[in-house]
Write the structure tokens for this entry.
Amino acid sequence: MKKVISRFFKRKVLLMTLFSAIFLFSAFKVVDKYFEIQKNMDIFTTLFKEVNMYYVDDVNPNTLMRTGIDAMLNSLDPYTNYIPEDDIEDYRTMHTGQYGGVGATVVTKDGKSTIIMPYEGYPAHDAGLKIGDEIVKIDGIELKDKTTAQVSKLLKGQAGTKVRLEIRSYGQQTSREVALSRETIKIDNVPYFGMVNQEIGYVQLTDFTNGASREVKEAVEKLKTQGAKKVILDLRGNPGGLLNEAVNICNLFINRDLEVVSTKGKIAEWNKPYKALNAPFDTEIPIAVLINGRSASAAEIVSGVIQDYDRGVLIGQRSFGKGLVQSTRPLTYNSQLKVTVAKYYIPSGRCIQAIDYAKRKEDGSVIRNADSLKRAFKTKKSGRTVYDGVGLDPDIALDVKKFAPITNSLRNKNLIFEYANEYALANNTIAEAKKFKMTEADYQAFVKWLRGKEYDYTTEVEKTIKSIEEKAKEEKSYQLIEAQLKALKDKASHNKEAELQQFKEEIKQILEAEIVARYYLEKGQTEFTLQQDPEIKEAIEILSNTSKYEKILKGQK
């Protein structure tokens, strides 16, 4: 009996010693970490002081510190950012979709601050400002050499405050002054919705700021009153936004109490599931979701939930692959830190994050996860195989539309934008947005206008020939093939006039869309482009074929 008791106590002492060792080791690890933090803070502080005091040239301490902060955060991921007090307003705009301004998008084109879109019902549009108008001054400040961001800051301000703009209308030599009162500008999350045929509605969702779920619900409700029995939800180019809005949008189409997304991080408070809390709006209506390589974050949550519950078909290209959650933390002097605190996981259990920022190459660069590293998961209803780690793969994959080099050159040189302004000057009205078409004479007038304009470009064939030429010179064999290369070069040399005719249809479509915007602004331009959009056409074809739609959802494609 004594031996048994003795063994029991020995075991107990051993276990207590082991637990104590683990506890002490953990405590030492925490102490070591805090010591390392304090040590490095001391080094950084003394280094900062020494550089500011002894560096040979004057140093701006704000610029130096900002450079240090940005470099430090850039070593983590692109979404962990320092937000100084001066940028807080822009950050709020991103999350609320609201700002004080005049209601126009202005960009710097060829050194001029040019209005590219005034928004209906806001001061700029009400004052008669148009696409192509140049803003010469804001409150007396010359805009020459100002960046787009600098011009934007000058235009924004408290709602109700006055701003004076000096405007030079397109085609005019003289300018005029326009006085405007800034208003609270609300950027719509759903800038457009409408019917694409008698029974299919279309909803364009471009952001996830406050009210996104309400806007989507209202759009689908109105479409259903117009006869919509199926819906296309367009999330292409949507960078994401508020997590709760993504959850609420999913809740419109899936049952209450179903899990939408869960987050997992280092801090326990970030490990939590998010469920559909409300009665759904419509769990039966067939859905086609459009995604592409710029659909990210909250847009991927909505797309992934629709896919994981076999609730709709995804069409387009692989999504961006951002499965990281950010939180904003207050700092001193009214600045803030936006920091990645967790990863999110959609119902199948997959995380679509495509880059592991903790695993960098020796040069500090990062790479996207390879397809070979994808892990398989199953959808909830049909058990279809889906994958994580690379973004979302669409159910129907379509190639990105590629334009000819001449088309890209005309766009990049702003010649299509400029000619649309010329066209609007010469024509007071055009047909309604959906029916507008340039005549052959219209297009040939554009070709004639281009003569003498600079829009040179290099085709892929020309690039290849140049590469061969450079390689031949390196290898001392150029003289042997010089004559053949010259002949090939002459044959491949592009003829602008010929290519303007060869690629007429795609150039015309882009030009027509620009012209429509001059008369019907953003909504009209969207209405026009929907008719030629290959992904919209594919979505209509899938939704119109019930058998094919259901086979895809059952994994029988």
The two ends are 73 Å apart (CA to CA).
